[in-house]
Amino acid sequence: MKNNVKLFMQGTFCIVILVFSSCQDKKTNTSFEKSSLGIPTNNEYYGFKSQVEWGEHLVLIGGCHDCHTPKKMTSHGPVLDTTLWLAGHPANMPRIDIDRNEVEKKGLAVAMDLTEWVGPWGISFSANLTPDPTGIGNWTEEQFIYALRNGIAKGIPDSRPILPPMPWEMIRHMTDDEMKAVFAYLRSIKPVNNIVPAPVPPTSVTN
Ligand code: HEC
User: Fold this and answer.
1) I want to staple 159 with a disulfide (CB 3.0 to 4.6 A). Which of 118, 153, 167, 173 is the partner?
2) What is the pLDDT of residue 135?
């Protein structure tokens, strides 16, 4: 009997410690505000109101616009073309006029709007990330995560590797939740119909 009481006391003590420590964890790791109904209010997405707004923030700080949004030239320098938000290299834009042999040997050439890149890998064009079928409109969230984690075009396992300068080796370190938020944001923006040209192999490759 005495032993039972002792065990019971020890058990209760452990539960109290567990409950207390899990409360502590919650306090230090996350401090979600809850409504009177216990529903997380505005802190679930690190202070952003929704998954989409959090995704927008990640896209902005992730530098995706640098390469994926065409620019307009103004007297103050290049500015993002808001009508082509994340629409990738415009299909109708003339190719940059350079000696590819020379560039492939010497290093890199890039279009003024950073959507066309010529280097030892050939020519790559930044992808259309809008929710149009010519962009990522038909992609699943799983494909998106697979593409960014593994550097594989369209997130289809037997597809081709994603070419430079797409910094997927850095972007792959996003958490699943961050990638999901980026995907949710990209699916929320204006679809732009733009068939980005396929990459061109290097001049040294003949077949
Ligand atoms: C330095 C330029 C650059 C930056 C910055 C950049 N990208 Fe890219 N991205 C590219 C290029 C160029 C391609 C096309 C590569 C190819 O055709 O293989 C590409 C391809 C992609 C693809 C694959 C598309 C497909 O059809 O398979 C995805 C997805 C993507 N980028 C998402 C992003 C996101 C999200 C960000 C920001 C977090 C980002 N990129 C930042 C240049 C960039």
Assistant:
1) 153
2) 98
